[in-house]
Design brief:
The complex is a heterodimer of chains A (214) and B (342).
Chain A (H helix, E strand, L loop, with lengths): L1 H7 L1 H24 L12 H11 L8 H24 L1 H12 L8 H24 L1 H6 L2 H19 L6 H17 L7 H18 L5
Chain B lengths: L1 H20 L8 H5 L12 H9 L20 H35 L12 E3 L3 H30 L1 H38 L8 H8 L15 H25 L7 H32 L3 H6 L2 E3 H7 L1 H17 L11
Antiparallel strand pairs in B: 1-2
Helix pairs in contact in B: 4-9, 5-6, 5-9, 6-8, 8-9, 11-12
Classes of the chains: A mainly alpha (214), B mainly alpha (342).
């Protein structure tokens, strides 16, 4: 019981603090890098270029679609499923309301929660397979990618195993997995959840000034 | 004498009064007269008769239909329980152990099936990215389902005595939730597998020769197309049991689909039988597809196999593929890079 209290008490606050401070540190670090001064006369505005890049890169270039359809399909399946489960599952909203934000919002129905979780799992399995089976992906993947994938999988799995919400130890196991994930997050490529905006924005700004749609 | 006479008279009067107050065996009690009230010991039927009728699953008319079904004890449930916890668990457990034992025995007797001609160094494409994605998707979900399913079916005999009831309660709850969650993914996987793999798994004339030779597992190599007779049989057994598992699983996950409880009980029994059968088969498949046959796993990981492996295990298919490669080279059509994304 003491272990459960530690997991749900001090360890949660430590993990949350590491996540918030670590992520801020990384983002501020990237922002402080700034960008090189571009002395050329801008042909177009930078900001619209950044916004364009941000949204247009959500779909692959039509010339590459056939080669990346599995990646696109699995990627959206996983990310949308995870997003829905993370922010619209009733137990998560209750937790965020009571422990973090002080306010809640409408939860999705249980059937939608189950479908979203299944989509997330299906997407994650397909992405994991692509990472190990595609020769290029295999070459560019390192331990960080695999650790990030597995920690995400374990956090999701333990959450689903605790779905009955009848066992304290299962809930604590899920929280422990999430805490490990939160601590690992800022120091890994899981940060792409935040940094994709910066990287796409940067590309968009650079090319936007040149009048090119990236 | 007078005293004795007085006492007898008094006793007779008391006895008369007592008898007069006793209900007659033929009389109907006020409570049961209006309706048959259950549990009235002195009513028209005894408690034991009443509870026997309840136990045998007789339907009663309830005073308020909102109370639920008129059947108070679903007696067939006991039969289901005794079958599920009896023969299904017992013979199912034996079947899984037989599958495991047969695989170990085969591994000990035959050892790894080597590429006799050694590796040629030339690779030929065997499985596309789509085929491999579906295979590994089904494999991953199957492992999660088989693990949780085995806990649900055998946990009370194997895990409970070791970790105790409290911890087992958590394990069983987790297994059930995981099983229910991953089940629908398996349905998608098995249907996708059927769509992608079925064509090459249709039985062909060459399969008869493979059967006569006893396959290539006992020494001599037998002719085979992309899949040999054993692989095709395994595929169709997996599809058949997979569809049974899917249909019965849907019934159990959505019990309101049927109002007849017996269908759910039958579904549960069939689910258990199909599950232990496919798990027992999968043990052999996993062994042969990984370490049992040299070079086999590469087809499912990299998408390509060594040419000598292909010629030894799937000669008819290998000739076909090599002919196609030669024609493409001749026409300059090009060959898809092994493992390239679809």
């Amino acid at each position: 019981m003491i272990l459960v209290e530690i997991i749900e008490g001090p360890l949660w606050y430590i993990a949350a603090a590491v996540f918030v401070l670590g992520a801020l540190w990384r983002i501020i670090g990237i922002l402080r890098l700034g960008r090189r001064t571009d002395l050329s006369v801008p042909r177009s505005a930078a900001l619209p270029g950044a916004l364009k890049a941000l949204f247009r890169h959500m779909l692959p270039h039509y010339g590459f679609f056939n080669r990346t359809k599995l990646h696109v399909f699995a990627g959206y399946l996983f990310h949308l499923g995870l997003f829905a489960v993370l922010f619209f599952a009733a137990p998560h909203i209750t937790f965020l309301e009571k422990r973090v934000l002080g306010f809640g919002w409408e939860a999705m129905p249980r059937w939608a929660f189950i479908v979203a979780a299944q989509a997330a799992f299906a997407g994650l399995i397909l992405l994991w397979f692509r990472r190990i089976a595609d020769p290029t992906m295999r070459q560019i993947s390192d331990a960080d990618d695999h650790i990030g994938s597995w920690l995400t999988f374990i956090a999701m799995l333990t959450g689903c195993l605790a779905l009955q919400e009848s066992n304290v130890s299962l809930r604590a196991l899920h929280m422990l997995a999430v805490e490990v994930w939160l601590i690992y997050f800022p120091f890994s490529r899981l940060m792409h959840a935040f940094t994709f905006v910066l990287s796409r924005g940067y590309t968009g700004i650079v090319y936007g000034r040149r009048g090119i749609t990236p | 004498m007078r005293l004795v006479g007085c006492i007898l008279l008094l006793a007779a009067a008391l006895a008369g009064a007592l008898v007069a107050n006793l209900p007659s065996p033929l009389a109907v009690s006020p409570a049961t007269a209006a309706d048959h009230v259950p549990g009235e010991a002195l009513g028209t039927e005894s408690d034991s008769d009443l509870w026997r009728r309840v136990r045998q699953g007789e339907s009663f008319t309830l005073s308020d239909p909102r109370l639920g079904a008129g059947v108070l004890v679903q007696s067939e449930g006991e039969e289901w329980r005794s079958i599920r916890n009896g023969p299904v668990s017992w013979y199912g457990g034996i079947l899984v152990l037989v599958g495991l034992g047969a695989t170990v025995l085969f591994a000990l007797l035959r050892g790894q099936v080597k590429i006799e001609g050694g590796r040629s160094g030339r690779r030929i494409p065997r499985f596309t990215m789509a085929e491999r994605s579906i295979h590994w998707f089904v494999a991953a979900v199957f492992i999660l389902l088989a693990g949780s399913g085995l806990i649900i079916l055998f946990g009370r005999y194997v895990i409970l005595p070791v970790i105790g009831p409290t911890a087992f309660g958590a394990v069983a709850s987790a297994a059930m939730q995981g099983h229910n969650l991953f089940g629908p993914l398996f349905i998608f996987g098995i249907l996708a597998m059927l769509a992608v793999y079925a064509v090459d798994n249709i039985f062909q004339a060459a399969d008869a020769k493979w059967i006569i030779k006893g396959g290539s597992l006992f020494g001599a190599h037998a002719p085979s197309w992309k899949y040999n007779f054993g692989e095709k049989t395994y595929f169709w057994l997996v599809v058949f049991t997979g569809l049974v598992l899917s249909a019965t699983g849907i019934l159990m996950e959505f019990p309101t689909l049927t109002e007849t409880l017996q269908y759910l009980q039958l579904a549960n029994i069939l689910h258990g039988i199909a599950a232990v059968l496919v798990i027992a088969l999968a043990v052999g498949h996993i062994y042969l597809g990984s370490i049992g046959v040299e070079g086999a796993l590469e087809g499912m990981t990299a998408g390509t196999v060594d040419e000598n492996w292909a010629r030894e295990h799937h000669d008819l298919w290998a000739e076909d593929v090599l002919r196609e490669i030669a024609e493409r080279e001749k026409t300059g059509a090009g060959i898809r890079a092994p493992g390239a994304a679809e």
